[in-house]
Specification:
Elements: E1 5-13, E2 20-28, E3 33-41, H1 47-65, E4 71-75, H2 78-84, H3 96-105, E5 112-116, H4 123-134, E6 140-146
Parallel strand pairs: 1-4, 4-5
Antiparallel strand pairs: 1-2, 2-3, 3-6
Length: 151
């Protein structure tokens, strides 16, 4: 297989007064970390909302930087993977706009595969979610890093 990019995403939600978060990580097929982001969100959202936002955020970055490269997406939320691929119907009103945006982006890539994986294969995105939720930062906080960043 030639050049491709791997997107891992995750989302998490804790108690109602605690932050929720989403994260995305992108690697080249050679294993080089290209970009990551983690966002804490207040007030708390649902776990599925955060999972979907993690996927959407990663796809938006990939569209700007790696649109013509095949993309392999992994996440530990089979529900969000199946909603994104239109295998499952989206019945929750809070998820409809995000899943619609995800579905609108997918055809813009040369090739995309979506795969639900066990949590043990999604440790980077999961770790970023937990890390940013644990930081107790301001109401909305996003931290990100790109391989192109010099700092």
């Amino acid at each position: 297989m030639g050049l491709y990019a791997l997107l891992a995403f995750d989302g998490g939600a804790r108690a109602s007064r605690k932050p929720s978060a989403h994260a995305s990580c992108v690697w080249s097929n050679s294993g080089k970390l290209l970009w990551w982001t983690a966002s804490a969100v207040h007030p708390c959202a649902t776990n599925n909302e955060m999972e979907a936002m993690g996927l959407l955020t990663g796809l938006r970055w990939l569209l700007r930087h790696y649109r013509s490269v095949p993309i392999h997406v992994i996440g530990d939320s089979a529900i969000i993977i199946n909603m994104a691929s239109a295998t499952y119907r989206v019945s929750a009103n809070n998820l409809r706009p995000v899943i619609r945006d995800i579905r609108d982006l997918l055809p813009l890539f040369r090739q995309v595969t979506l795969q639900a994986v066990p949590c043990v294969y999604n440790v980077a995105a999961d770790g970023l979610c937990n890390w940013i939720m644990d930081m107790q930062l301001s109401p909305i906080t996003t931290l990100r890093k790109s391989a192109d960043d010099t700092a």
